[in-house]
Design a protein that fits this description.
- The chain contains 2 helices and no strands.
- The protein has 66 residues and is mainly α.
């Protein structure tokens, strides 16, 4: 019969390792999103990105339906 405390210890270690990886991934994602937003505001101010057409005079309801 296996030693249950060792299995529990291994499970705790694996859970802590996985949580650490998820937190690092989330932190990196926030930094990357912030960098993209900053670049869009500073360097690519005059560039056109894909946006919705709602309320714009050049868009009509007929062109959106087809």
């Amino acid at each position: 019969m296996p030693d249950w405390s060792r299995i529990g210890s291994l499970l705790d270690f694996c859970a802590a390792y996985y949580t650490t990886k998820l937190v690092r991934c989330a932190a990196f994602s926030f930094v990357l999103i912030g960098l993209v937003m900053l670049l869009r505001k500073m360097l690519f101010l005059r560039q056109t990105f894909i946006r919705g057409c709602y309320g714009h005079p050049s868009c009509s309801s007929r062109s959106l339906e087809s």
